[in-house]
Design brief:
Largest sheet: 7 strands, antiparallel
Order of helices and strands: EEEEEEE
Oligomer: single chain
Helix content: under 10%
Distance between the termini: 34 Å
Number of helices: 0
Strand content: over 45%
């Protein structure tokens, strides 16, 4: 794992509807040539056990306290150079001069009616979908194999839609135009 800049912000539902990104799931993963894929259908945990948010509904979006709908999620990456193992759910982060890796990946999490907030001074409850999308690039290049040195780079862009004004933030919803 990249030790100085771990992208923990990508654990977007950590300790809200899962425990350290774990939840009941049916999943499939594998490789089709240079394409590595991971897909899952999950049952999120009840947010009543969450230490992250209150269960009190208000004008800003929160994860809904109602029984959760299933989450659909997937991650797909294309490995242009050396292949990475997918035996564990995590990636190595740096091969310290033993591999040349260049991958481009894309992933998503979607859950119908995962979020809720009130409108009209609390008179109406509005439910919204959770829609998280991301694209990332990973590059690890051998500099000197005899010294196990490498250059390692990781970059990602994410679009996280948690509904209306999650903690005062109005999300960018460009993806709705794609659907």
């Amino acid at each position: 794992m990249l030790t100085m800049d771990a992208p923990l912000y990508q654990q977007a539902t950590n300790d809200v509807s899962d425990q350290f990104v774990r939840k009941y799931s049916i999943y499939a993963k594998g490789k089709l040539g240079k394409l590595d894929y991971r897909v899952a259908l999950s049952k999120p945990m009840s947010i009543s056990a969450s230490s992250v948010q209150s269960a009190v509904i208000g004008p800003n979006s929160l994860f809904s306290n109602e029984p959760a709908n299933l989450q659909t999620q997937g991650y797909f990456k294309y490995e242009f150079l050396d292949s990475e193992s997918n035996l564990t759910p995590y990636n190595t982060g740096s091969y310290l001069g033993s591999k040349n890796v260049f991958n481009i990946g894309a992933g998503f999490i979607y859950q119908k009616d995962a979020m809720w907030h009130t409108e009209n001074n609390g008179a109406d409850i509005v439910r919204e979908n959770l829609a998280l999308f991301g694209v990332d690039v990973f590059y690890d290049r051998v500099l000197d194999a005899s010294k196990n040195t490498a250059i390692t780079a990781y970059a990602a862009i994410s679009s996280n839609d948690y509904g209306k004004k999650l903690r005062g933030y109005e999300p960018c919803q460009w993806w709705r135009k794609l659907i």
